[in-house]
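Write out a record, fold above all:
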Amino acid sequence: MGTQIDFAELVVSPGEFFQVGETERIRSSIGLKLSDRSYLPKADDPRADWVASVAVPAFKTLAQMGFLAPKFCTLGTGAGLDVLAAVEILEARTVGFTDLHEDVLEHARQNIQSNLLSHDVELIGGVGDILSPLVGKVSQVDVIYENLPNIPMAGSGDLADGQTSSTFIAERSEEIPGFAEKNLVTLHYLALQQAHPVLRVGGRVLSSIGARVPLSEILALSGAAGYNGSILTYTWKVQSEPHEVVGGYAQWEREGLGPFHFYPVDVLQDSFKGMSAAAAGAQALQMEKELSPYEISAVDALALVEKGEKVGHTVAILDSVKIPDSDL
């Protein structure tokens, strides 16, 4: 089954999208209703979709490690596919989910409810910034998954206008480490901070981060926020919304942030060929080193995009495990 779009409706096959056999907890054909501000799942091109190419392999890796998530939260759920994946793969039973817009959240809630086979899943939704909508509503969580925006929005931008999944309001009242600001990973750091009181000891935050900066800088987020961190999975994807995203990185690169790096798609295909995301995660630092001769700056990548060429980037799942306070 492919993808059918009828105005704001989409049908996805979990067999193809999640690469699973017969589903046990969710429907075998997922029907989605989307707001204009919902992030559109790329069901016809899973390699370009964050849930299909990044979240699902990470969830499968945890499950293969024997780590399930009866209590699961996702930040910025969009269409709700990440929740359905967690219910199927991680056996989530209490699910917290957030988004920035009320209409997106309500569509996600309906999408999740209408595609569950199991009736024992508790849904706890909240509208707002990062984890704040779920504070006081969830506790002792096993896994928090986040795929938050990286690019600070220009002063004239409006988060209420259309689909703005790659951008966020730059002005924050919290104290942000300089390295996080320079590398455009501010929201990932804040998510780790906010997650700490909500997680159980041994629980983990899976931060889905386009690795356009060195993995060492991504790993530093865990330590700065008081976790034990490692790269769980490592993969790549074709840059989606390339004019918007690469253009945003190029703008900030010109302002002195970064540098940020992209790669030719064929190089990424060859480098990751035949390798699982978990296996790549185990040797991510070495792979990054081998890819370094092929790095393309954001400014140069934008020039390629403007010529109609595709660029790609690597993606890391940063696995931050909560340790007892006495170990800090």
About this structure: The radius of gyration is 18 Å. Confidence is low (pLDDT under 50) at residues 1-7, 155-168.
